[in-house]
Amino acid sequence: MTATLTLPTPSKSYVLADSVTMLRRSIRRIIRYPSMTLLLVGMPVVFLLLFVYVFGGTLGAGIGGASGGRAEYVNYVAPGIILMTVASSAQGTAISVAMDMTAGIIARFRTMAIARSAVLTGHVIGSLLQTMFSIVLVIGVAVAVGFRPNAGPLEWLAAFGILAFITLALTWLSVAMGLVSKSVETASNTPMILMLLPFVGSAFVPTDSLPTALRWFAEYQPFTPVTETLRGLLLGGPIGNNAVIAVAWCVALTLVGYFWAMSLFNRRASH
Amino acid sequence: MTRRSLKHTLRSPDTMVMTIALPIMILLMFVYIFGGAFDVGGEYIDYVVPGIILLCAGFGAGTAAVSVSTDMTNGIIDRFRTMAISRSSVLTGHVVESVVRNLLTTSIVIVVAVALGFRPTADPLKWLAALAVIAVFVLALSWISVALGLLARNPEAAQGFTFFLMFIPYVSSAFVPTDTMPTWLRSFAEHQPVTPVIETLRGLLMGTEIGNSAMLAVIWCDAIGLAGYLSASLIFKRKTAH
């Protein structure tokens, strides 16, 4: 005869408390393994230095004509690099989730009176905080190499708002990618697509310098409106309808990521 | 030993696929995404392909380090020591296999480049010279990779050690002319080993000015190859002595 354990359905206050506990766990892990944060910051910084110092002179001239140069290109590329930091952090989230799923800790949590959603929420909020910290570091490096934003406090607030939103969207997507992966190695490779998308957008070069087929894709993919909104906010350029499209993409990606992650987690945690 | 190494490669096609796929992806990215914005005074694909060829060689040679490290950690060397096998042949096998594999992958990358619009102006003699330059460069890098593979504690560390082989071509004339770089970076880019090899390759395939690049390329390749060979032999002797 087998005994079945029936846990009470947690109330909303319990869900919140459990999420805070799981967030604390995620933050502890981040502090204990600073190498992961350094790695997440390291890749965008390497790309920033590469594109500014190695390719910047040529790309600056190609983008800005005779007036264009390395100084202009730093300002052009920095928002794209900031977004790359978000995509890079998503990879870290997928790895953390896959580690939890394969290490057996979830089985332990199932024996406790913990709100199921709290486990994933902890990962997401922890990753959000880690990414925002990484973004600040990357902006610091960008300023050191010549990035000169002319945004006021309100624009900076809006820029961080849009960055937090896209981080939330990509984090939920990467949580789902981490859950769908059979191993940690697979989880580290799956979000690579998110790392590649900024390249096929307006992050490094204007979309009108791309071949027609590629330009069409670049103009309608999620990273381009976010990059253009960020560029407009930080450098005072025209934003147009990019902000609305960026927010719409963020909402759509968050919902897709959230529901996909939840259904995968419920399926995997139930057996 | 070369046959053994080649069998290993054929049995793990994923390594071969990655060795080919990564340079092709980088080629596609630089030609289609950045190519329109780069101003190099001509067709960008013709400018970038020699650099991609060397990037491919660097990436391919780097896998030799992982193979050697795997051999050193899984105990096969101890087995070989009980047999009447020349000690040096173990390493030589890895190096020869690396050269053969890299020439094959480089050929595939060149075919893809031609399909994308690369139009070399070289005659058969210049093609032969270009292949010789690639082979000598791969040989030099393979010996350095083998030495790094012997130094590494495990295959993962060996992969990390060879990362710079992948990175050095970026800080050269592979993707952009060195005169577009800041002064401090330009002096490094102009005096590092990859630049003269690329300029020689570009000159042979596209008919651009070679100058003293060919001589510098040969000197660099010989120096790197010799340093790699001597250090690899020394480390291998020390590691298998007890």
TrEMBL record, chain A:
Segment forming the signal sequence: none
Topological type in the membrane: Multi-pass membrane protein
Gene Ontology MF, one: ABC-type transporter activity
Keyword annotations from UniProtKB, A to Z: Antibiotic resistance, Cell membrane, Membrane, Transmembrane, Transmembrane helix, Transport
Bilayer-spanning residue ranges: 33-56, 76-99, 120-144, 156-180, 192-218, 238-261
Residues annotated as domain ABC transmembrane type-2: 35-268
Coiled coil location: none
Domain of life: Bacteria
Family per similarity comment: Belongs to the ABC-2 integral membrane protein family.
Protein name according to UniProt: Transport permease protein
Organism listed in the record: Antrihabitans stalactiti
TrEMBL record, chain B:
Alphabetized UniProt keyword annotations: Antibiotic resistance, Cell membrane, Membrane, Transmembrane, Transmembrane helix, Transport
Primary location class: membrane
Biological process terms in GO annotation: response to antibiotic
Taxonomic superkingdom: Bacteria
Annotated ABC transmembrane type-2 domain residues: 14-239
Membrane topology category: Multi-pass membrane protein
Key word Transport present: yes
GO annotations of cellular component type: ATP-binding cassette (ABC) transporter complex
Subcellular location: Cell membrane; Membrane
Transmembrane region(s): 16-35, 47-69, 90-115, 127-151, 158-176, 214-236
One of the record's GO molecular function terms: ABC-type transporter activity
Similarity field: Belongs to the ABC-2 integral membrane protein family.
PANTHER family assigned to the protein according to its UniProt record, in alphabetical order: NODULATION PROTEIN J
Protein name, per record: Transport permease protein
Species of provenance: Antrihabitans stalactiti
